[in-house]
Amino acid sequence: MNRIFGIVILTLFAAVPASGQTQVANDREVAFKPGERLQYAVSYGPVPAGTMELQVVELASLGNRPAYHFASEVESNRAVSYVYEIESREEAWLDADRLHSLKYLRDSVEKGKERDRSYTFDQQRNIRLDDEGKPRPTSPNAVDQLSMIYYLRLLPFDQGSRFTLRNQADPDDNPLTVRVLKRERVKVPAGTFDTWVVELGLQTDSGVFKKGGDNRLWLTADSRHLPVKISSKIGLGNFVAELVEYEPGVAVTAR
Hints:
Blueprint: H1 2-10, E1 37-44, E2 47-62, E3 65-76, H2 78-84, E4 86-95, E5 101-110, E6 113-122, E7 127-129, E8 135-137, H3 147-152, E9 162-165, E10 176-188, E11 191-201, E12 215-220, E13 227-234, E14 237-247
Antiparallel strand pairs: 1-2, 1-14, 2-3, 3-4, 4-5, 5-6, 6-7, 7-8, 9-10, 10-11, 11-12, 12-13, 13-14
Helix pairs in contact: 1-2
């Protein structure tokens, strides 16, 4: 389980690419607003493993572009930390109009080792630059792993909907298919929600989400598309994250 928790937490949403070819909601229908906060309890099978938080920090400006500033924090609990301690914070800036990444940061500690990452995206040249200015190729209109879950929430879900997404930052991971399986009421610690059950189909393995595996999201069947539950079968058990607390955001304009 020590290995599993480390993989699960760091790649929770890393397998959700975004696509410039898929029509998303317009500005008046944006599913999230600055100040939104989502808190989750994470478990592997019956074993509590830790906590996760997702936040829309603000609608700011980066490089003269209006940008959503996202943040996530992950922490293993005491029992899991005994075998695999992990603390991670990610930040991302997503162009609010063009819906592609501008910047991505991650600071994490795994088993006492610091692992930091920083990228600035040059969308015109389809590259991302690290701290030393070294370029790496990206897909057109690339979206980083934290911003992806928010992009996914903008898709126009309906019964039987299917999307082919091609803008994962790493070109080798494309395409990914997103398919609505059914509508279902689901109970989590934060309450009972009417949801779309969404299946992810991957081209490659990506941490917790596996090619050919049972990878599912439960998104509220309203305009918010809140991710209230995430599940992926791993070996003989299931990884599950369930929403514990939700704070809505407030609509603002970019500064």
